[in-house]
């Protein structure tokens, strides 16, 4: 495993689809979290290459046509969100998705707590995801938020923020389930950042099947000449030129 510019790279690049599947905790623990935190600080996002194998991606994408796994189905065009569709998983979550959500959270909480301290935000996040979900449920946010998105030719996702209630964890993760250039073309993950008195900065994040991107949901701190200041972020997906694209979204807070 290598770390380049704060982005972890695994060697070989394409892991075998028939490899022995490590537990969610073991595979998450294998990354260079110091490097990933540095990338989140520098760019507002960080890539975890090869978080899922090819067979796992196919199995998760295939769930889309099994409605018993989901609590709701959203057609983006009906709400002005763009074009495409997605489904929110229902509890209990599929085992691997639940395991990844649980294993990723404490690593993200370290970064989130540092960001809040630097932005003078009082909220601090507990070490364990189960404790944070208890806070969400006490605040009336009890609906699960992990989702599976599907895009076809011409589809796109407008720039947005996934907040869902008063309690919102400041980092989320998206995992690409399809292979660019083979399964689809276009459809790049896009992150925009608005700094005070400056034009928006755009980050286009290249991903391959099984790669995950962790990114800021709403705000993050940036060091300026007079200390840290808060910047606002939005994310989306550019227009799909052809094919079929699935993405798994892991959001750590629950919704109202």
UniProtKB/TrEMBL annotation:
It comes from the Bacteria. InterPro entries: DUF2086. Residues 1-20 are annotated as: Disordered. Pfam families: Oxygenase-NA (PF09859). This is Proline hydroxylase.
């Amino acid at each position: 495993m290598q770390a380049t510019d704060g982005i972890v790279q695994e060697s070989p690049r394409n892991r075998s689809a028939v490899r022995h599947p490590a537990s969610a905790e073991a595979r998450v623990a294998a990354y260079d979290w110091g490097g990933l935190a540095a990338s989140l600080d520098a760019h507002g996002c960080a890539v975890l290459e090869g978080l899922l194998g090819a067979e796992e991606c196919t199995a998760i994408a295939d769930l889309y046509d099994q409605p018993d796994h989901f609590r709701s189905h959203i057609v983006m065009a009906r709400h002005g969100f763009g074009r495409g569709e997605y489904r929110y998983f229902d509890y209990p979550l599929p085992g691997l998705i639940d395991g990844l959500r649980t294993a990723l959270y404490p690593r993200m909480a370290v970064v989130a707590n540092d960001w809040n301290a630097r932005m003078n935000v009082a909220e601090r996040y507990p070490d364990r995801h189960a404790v944070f979900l208890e806070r969400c449920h006490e605040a009336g946010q009890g609906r699960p938020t992990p989702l599976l998105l599907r895009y076809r030719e011409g589809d796109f996702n407008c720039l947005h923020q996934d907040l869902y209630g008063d309690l919102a964890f400041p980092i989320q993760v998206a995992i690409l389930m399809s292979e660019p250039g083979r399964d689809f073309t276009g459809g790049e993950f896009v992150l925009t950042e608005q700094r005070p008195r400056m034009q928006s900065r755009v980050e286009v994040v290249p991903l391959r099947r099984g790669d995950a991107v962790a990114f800021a949901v709403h705000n993050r701190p940036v060091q300026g000449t007079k200390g840290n200041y808060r910047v606002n972020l939005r994310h989306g997906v550019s227009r799909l030129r052809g094919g079929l694209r699935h993405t798994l979204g892991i959001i750590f807070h629950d919704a109202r």
